[in-house]
């Protein structure tokens, strides 16, 4: 497997299945800005709420090839292995397909993911043990807590200032290295001081 991060903003993503497992797959897609369509004769309360809020499209029907023919990403999450096999058989090599009941049928796995603002940490066991991947992800939540959201915003702002500056490559590299010292993670005051150092060099 080759791990990557995808930009799926405004991309058509299809979830086949209307149960709770399928519902749990929708959240990360919506957070990434995907255009999500759910295809299933019935949908759970979670999907009903998302539909009422206008966050997803729903097709209350049995899935057909035309429903996902032009989709960028497809998640097959029904309780029917026959449907999963048929879906994968009908997809093209250019489509991304995840089959929850049979990792060998799809061409990508969905890792257990921890998000802290701009920070994303994904854990995968390549289908060997999704439960272990989730356990490791949960353990990491204690190490990388909510404070990393603001910390990453600071690092992003630092990087933008440095990119605009006329400093040498070595000077920029050193500043970027300095910015990830622990003092800036724990002290808002020190972050302001560091950013103040960058403002003069940006305008030189």
Overview of the molecule:
- The chain is an alpha/beta fold and 204 residues long.
- It folds into three domains: 1-110, Rossmann fold (3-Layer(aba) Sandwich), CATH 3.40.50; 111-145, 2-Layer Sandwich (Double Stranded RNA Binding Domain), CATH 3.30.160; 147-203, SirC, precorrin-2 dehydrogenase, C-terminal helical domain-like (Helicase, Ruva Protein, domain 3, Orthogonal Bundle), CATH 1.10.8.610.
- Helices cover 48% and strands 15% of the residues.
- Helix 4 links the parallel strand 4 and strand 5 (96-99).
- The longest helix has 18 residues, at 147-164.
- The termini are far apart.
Topology as a string of helices (H) and strands (E): EHEHEHEHEEEHHHHH
**CATH topology of the largest domain, anyone?**
Rossmann fold
Percent of residues in helices comes to 40-55%
What is the strand content?
15-25%
Strand order of the largest sheet: 3-2-1-4-5
Count of domains: 3
Task: Provide a quick synopsis of the model.
Keywords: NAD, Oxidoreductase, Porphyrin biosynthesis. With 204 residues, the protein is an alpha/beta fold.
Write the layout of secondary structure elements.
Layout: E1 12-16, H1 20-31, E2 35-39, H2 45-52, E3 57-59, H3 65-68, E4 73-76, H4 81-90, E5 96-99, E6 112-116, E7 119-123, H5 130-143, H6 147-164, H7 169-179, H8 182-186, H9 188-203
Parallel strand pairs: 1-2, 1-4, 2-3, 4-5
Antiparallel strand pairs: 6-7
Short descriptors:
single chain; alpha/beta; Rossmann fold; Double Stranded RNA Binding Domain; 7 strands; 15% strand; elongated
């Amino acid at each position: 497997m080759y791990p990557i991060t995808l930009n799926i903003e405004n991309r058509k993503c299809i979830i086949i299945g209307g149960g709770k497992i399928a519902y749990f797959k929708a959240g990360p897609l919506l957070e990434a800005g995907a255009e999500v369509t759910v295809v299933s004769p019935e949908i759970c309360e979670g999907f009903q709420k998302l539909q009422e809020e206008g966050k997803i499209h729903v097709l209350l029907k049995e899935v057909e090839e035309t429903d996902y023919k032009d989709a960028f990403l497809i998640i097959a999450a029904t309780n029917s292995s026959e449907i999963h096999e048929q879906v994968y058989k009908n997809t093209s090599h250019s489509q991304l397909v995840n089959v929850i009941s049979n990792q060998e049928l799809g061409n990508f796995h969905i890792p257990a993911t921890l998000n802290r603002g701009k920070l994303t940490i994904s854990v995968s066991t390549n289908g060997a043990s999704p439960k272990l991947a989730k356990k490791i992800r949960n353990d990491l939540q204690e190490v990388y807590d909510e404070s990393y959201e603001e910390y990453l915003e600071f690092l992003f702002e630092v990087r933008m200032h440095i990119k605009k500056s006329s400093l040498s490559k070595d000077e920029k590299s050193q500043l970027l290295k300095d910015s990830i010292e622990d003092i800036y993670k724990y002290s808002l005051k020190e972050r302001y001081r560091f950013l103040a150092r960058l403002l003069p060099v940006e305008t030189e």
